[in-house]
Amino acid sequence: MENKLILWDIDGTLLYCGSNGTQALNKTFHDLYSIVDAFESTSIGAALDSVIIQHIIDKFSIINPDLDQIVATYIGNLEEILKRNEDKKILPGAREIVSHINNSRNIFNSILTSNLREGAKVKLASVGLEKFFWVGGYGDHMGEKWDSAHNAIKMAEDFYKVKFKKENIFIIGDTVYDIKCAKKLQIKSIAVATGWTAYYDLEKSLPDFIFKSMKDYQEIIDILELK
């Protein structure tokens, strides 16, 4: 059996936590620089967290920003906001699929997210999913999500000591950005309409597979198990 790598998006795919990330980012720039609604003021759209943070810094002409302090404050704020969020949850079917992969001998889990690495860890831990993920591509660098995907694939190959053919690498995500990322890398996409993007808009981007949700998780497992 050939080895397969599954790159998981977090927000709107694995879990739901509302706009907690945005809230934490806004609070961070208000706490440190008295800026109100920093994220909303940028209108940057889909981007890695590091790109969003730098865009805010540039937008508000922050002189000599302390990036380490910004990140540390953001992570602290995110932890506190998530603790108070009684509506956060693992999305239906996600735990079953990652558990199946975790017990497989030839299929491997990885994270692929625009979140900062520490932010991703906090989100996963808030719903008990952290134990399924050892490697990933994150939003700590300047670039695009496909740059993070390159990092995730390399890290997974080094960690698991296996090589993955492009046709055996899947991105599971809830946005057009995830589908675009898969096309850029010539790997496969499984789109799920469990986030902010409508099924119709995902469908227009021509993912390899598309589902309204992962509730019928066996259908997705069957796709991943195909030889």
Q: Treating each run of at least 4 consecutive H or I residues as one helix, how many helices?
A: 10
C-alpha end-to-end distance: 7 Å
Across the major sheet, the strand order is 5-4-1-6-7-8
The main sheet comes to:
6 strands, parallel
Mean pLDDT: 96
Shape: globular
Strand content: 5-15%
- Strand elements, count: 8
Element order, helices and strands?
Answer: EEHHHHEHEHEHEHEHEH
> Uncertain runs with pLDDT below 50, 5 residues or more?
none
Helix/strand-derived category reads: alpha/beta
Q: Write down the Rg.
A: 17 Å
Q: In which range does the helix fraction lie?
A: 40-55%
What features would you describe in this structure?
- The chain is an alpha/beta fold and 227 residues long.
- It is 48% helix and 13% strand.
- The longest helix has 18 residues, at 67-84.
- It starts with a strand and ends with a helix.
Give the topology, please.
Blueprint: E1 4-8, E2 15-16, H1 20-33, H2 38-42, H3 49-59, H4 67-84, E3 89-90, H5 94-102, E4 107-112, H6 117-126, E5 136-137, H7 145-160, E6 169-173, H8 176-185, E7 188-192, H9 199-204, E8 209-211, H10 217-225
Parallel strand pairs: 1-4, 1-6, 4-5, 6-7, 7-8
Antiparallel strand pairs: 2-3
Helix pairs in contact: 1-4, 4-6, 5-10, 7-8
